[in-house]
Amino acid sequence: MARDSRGLARALTAADRELQRLGRAPRTREDVLAETRRFLAATGRAARAVRREDVVRYLAAAQRRGVTGRTQQNALTLLRMFFRALVTAGAVRADPTADVPFPQAGEPARLAVSEQGARALLVSSSTPAERRHGQATVDARTALARARRDRAALEVLFGLGVRSSEARTARVADLDLANGTLLVRRAKRGEVERLPLPPAALPHVASYALDARRLLLGQAPDHGLLLVRDDGRPFTYGSALNVLVSRVARRAGVRAHPHALRRGLATALVRRGASLPVVQALLGHKDLAVVAAYVLVDKDDLRRAVEALELERR
After folding, report:
1. Per-residue pLDDT averaged across 7-16, rounded?
2. If residue 182 lies in a helix (H) or strand (E), which one and from where to where?
């Protein structure tokens, strides 16, 4: 095991040095290494022993969990950067990702969670689920803390429509419970905005932040990030919150992923009468056309719009 750990550390260091030499941004290098750790842990192989079939199986497993095609594409891109860096550094002979086709983005990327679906997710997340680690059953207090974490994560994702990367980089210090706001660091352009949390979301976010989070941290050092994993560590890789949302969605009988919650919020707001510029401000987009593409309308929406225009003519 120690040899495997040393081998993993050497491979990660070699790849990171090469990526740094190529001028990759620190955030990109972190994402590459985090995705690689997750991949190697799932395959149980050393980096030099990875085969094409391991990569294909990894992506297929992600698809079965409900991870979107776009997120799978991102995972493959990160793994390809890692193995190409190792090839250049002379640490491996060939890139096992070289001829793996990119997954199709497909329909899930266009999925929008309805308000009814969002309510089902929130209710389901609040119910502690029995989980086992090896032979030990998680105690009731820990299971409740995890349920509160799940509820807080979903409240932030749907209530503010933030990207999963924006949710996982939010800090405890960014949360202002007195005024009901959260400071959001935009994933694109690096802008910082303080957004209002829905009043109904506040008790759940507060319960997690003030109590459950501390229990999940345990004896681990406090890294300051708002959302923490079961073991107290931060959600550091791109698909981490996808796994959380997919797990809750399966229990609730709803199809969902973080971006579908973002799209669902935009659609719900427009259907309730919010203007596109207001939705644009909440989502943090500069291009109004991009916001319009987020909003999914059905025939009933179009019918109501036509009827409204007809009334205006009279």
Report:
1. 90
2. strand 181-185
Q: Is 294 a catalytic residue?
A: yes
Residue 285 bears catalytic tag? yes
Query: What was the pLDDT predicted at 186?
Result: 86
Residue 238's SS3 state is coil
Q: Annotated catalytic residue: which of 38, 80, 263, 285?
A: 285
Helices (H), the chain: 2-21, 26-43, 52-64, 69-89, 115-125, 140-160, 164-168, 202-207, 213-217, 240-252, 258-271, 276-283, 288-294, 299-313
Strand partners of residue 136: 133
Find out whether 49 and 62 touch, Cβ atoms under 8 Å: no
Is 257 tagged catalytic? no
Catalytic one of 148, 163, 204, 263: 163
Residue 107 is classified by DSSP as G
Given a cut of 70, whether residue 119 has pLDDT beyond it is: yes
pLDDT of residue 104: 73
286 is catalytic: no
Q: Of 80, 84, 168, 259, which residue is the catalytic one?
A: 259
In the residue annotation, 259 being an active-site residue is answered as: yes
Asked if 32 and 82 count as a contact pair (C-beta separation under 8 A), the reply is yes
Pick the catalytic residue from 29, 84, 262, 263: 262
Half-sphere exposure (Cβ direction) of 211: Cα atoms closer than 13 Å: 12
Q: In what order do the strands lie in the sheet with 181-185?
A: 175-176, 181-185, 192-196
pLDDT tens by residue, 134-153: 434 678 899 999 999 999 99
The domains located in the chain, with CATH, are: 2-109 (1.10.150), 112-294 (1.10.443.10)
Confidence band, pLDDT 50/70/90 cuts, at residue 310: very low
Q: What is the mean pLDDT of residues 66-75?
A: 83
Point out the catalytic residue in the list 17, 188, 223, 304: 188
Q: Say how far apart CA 266 and CA 276 lie, in whole Å.
A: 9
